[in-house]
């Protein structure tokens, strides 16, 4: 066999991505940079959807994005404020600062945690997705994983065959539920949220120029400028299930929702009601969850990323971080398993999906398991310790005492995790024979 003949037989790795949300878009950007691949994103909506509230970008997520996009251009849609990106927790009644989660002082300021609006971030990422990569109107109904690849069955569309399927179809992922049989369940809280022109709150005195959370047991009120002259409000309210069932994702609750929040937060810091009074309306998002995947791969042909892999709403406000980290780990794992023999000879790249998905899974599953445990620890601490305080003085003391330092999570270095896994596994040699 000649080199030319071998090259002609080396077909591009066909990668299908299900879902064109934030994580799906980043997956499309990253995986398209690999050698000898054919990448397509299949999105069920008929066109790009301009919905959503604010997005938190941690140091970890910005470390990933800087490898894929122009990080200086991204700064134009970010907000950090007086705390230089820090996230402020305040006393529910007085507004007194109880804790501040600051970025590392050694971090490049462009990579310090920040907030933005989901829509401009989505549009920014889309500008880096290669033209024609996204196919709209493709709703994945079922996948069949075999040793030869993955067949994806769509509703009212022709099926497709891929060598590798990346499930980025969110918390309600049909792909995940096909393999786990799980059901998404209500977490007990509804997120009420809105983004509106910052002009509406310009006359409110003493409104903090930072990202703040007023906290009382399980209920939280978040305020933050978002850049691009926008302001964001998110309220987490432990509403009974019969109230939550009235809503669907991103449903506008109109005047009812705003008055519901004003009544619920009536005895909180007065500045909260001042903002709620001028806010035009509010949308709802019942927080739901399902069991997290212990392994993020199936049959060396399917990889889960983002909320499809770890389906929970509002986990530390770091959902984008977790999804972007998944994508980077998958990209590096595929990149690592291209035979050096092919690279050195100029032949089209070929991938060892067995090893690639093993590296991907090992890079992510341990970190994600720790995040999931932390969610449980924090919920138990609030229920058993903080909420049982006998008076406000004791409540403050307990809150400060158990405030979790989350630098290990926000500053997680996915590249370092990947390199550690590679080092632990040792070198992988693959001999290519050419007659």
From TrEMBL:
Pfam families: FAD_binding_3
Cleavable signal peptide: none
Domain (FAD-binding) ranges: 14-339
UniProt GO molecular function: FAD binding; monooxygenase activity
Transmembrane region(s): 12-31
Keyword annotations of the record: FAD, Flavoprotein, Membrane, Monooxygenase, Oxidoreductase, Transmembrane, Transmembrane helix
Top-level taxon: Eukaryota
InterPro entries attached to this UniProt entry: FAD-bd, FAD-dep_Monooxygenase_BioMet, FAD/NAD-bd_sf
Entry similarity comment: Belongs to the paxM FAD-dependent monooxygenase family.
Record-given protein name: BA75_00006T0
């Amino acid at each position: 066999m000649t080199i030319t003949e071998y090259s002609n037989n080396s077909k591009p790795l066909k990668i299908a991505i299900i879902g064109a949300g934030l994580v799906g878009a980043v997956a499309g950007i990253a995986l398209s940079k690999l050698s000898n691949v054919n990448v397509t994103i299949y999105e069920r909506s008929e066109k790009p959807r301009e919905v959503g509230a604010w997005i938190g970008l941690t140091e970890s997520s910005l470390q990933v994005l800087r490898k894929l996009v122009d990080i200086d251009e991204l700064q134009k849609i970010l907000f950090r404020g007086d705390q230089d990106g820090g996230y402020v927790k305040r006393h529910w009644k007085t507004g007194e600062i109880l804790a501040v989660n600051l970025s590392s002082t050694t971090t490049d300021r462009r990579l310090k945690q920040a907030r933005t609006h989901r829509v401009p971030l989505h549009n920014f990422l889309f500008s880096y997705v290669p033209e024609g990569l996204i196919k709209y109107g493709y709703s994945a109904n079922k996948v069949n994983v075999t040793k030869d690849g993955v067949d994806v069955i769509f509703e009212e569309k022709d099926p497709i065959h891929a060598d590798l399927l990346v499930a980025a179809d969110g918390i309600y992922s049909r792909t995940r539920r096909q393999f786990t049989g799980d059901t998404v369940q209500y977490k007990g809280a509804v997120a009420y949220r809105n983004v509106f022109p910052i002009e509406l709150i310009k006359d409110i005195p003493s409104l903090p120029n930072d990202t703040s959370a007023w906290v009382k047991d399980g209920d939280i009120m978040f305020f933050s400028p978002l850049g691009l002259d926008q302001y964001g409000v998110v309220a987490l309210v432990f509403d009974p299930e019969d109230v939550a069932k009235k809503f669907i994702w991103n449903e506008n609750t109109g005047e009812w929702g705003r008055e519901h929040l004003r009544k619920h937060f009536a005895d909180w810091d007065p500045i909260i009601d001042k903002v709620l009074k001028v806010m035009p309306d509010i949308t709802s998002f019942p927080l739901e969850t399902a069991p997290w995947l212990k392994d993020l791969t199936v049959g060396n042909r399917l990889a889960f990323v983002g909320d499809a892999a770890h389906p929970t709403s509002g986990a530390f406000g770091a959902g984008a971080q977790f999804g972007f980290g998944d994508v980077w780990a998958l990209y590096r794992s595929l990149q690592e398993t291209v035979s050096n023999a092919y690279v050195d000879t100029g032949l089209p790249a070929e991938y060892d999906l067995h090893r690639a998905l093993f590296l991907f899974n090992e890079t992510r599953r341990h970190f994600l398991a720790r995040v999931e445990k932390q969610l449980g620890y924090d919920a138990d601490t609030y229920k058993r310790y903080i909420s049982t305080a006998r008076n406000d003085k004791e409540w403050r003391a307990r809150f400060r005492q158990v405030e979790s330092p989350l630098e290990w999570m926000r500053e997680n270095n996915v590249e370092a995790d990947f390199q550690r896994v590679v080092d632990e596994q040792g070198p992988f040699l693959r001999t290519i024979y050419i007659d």
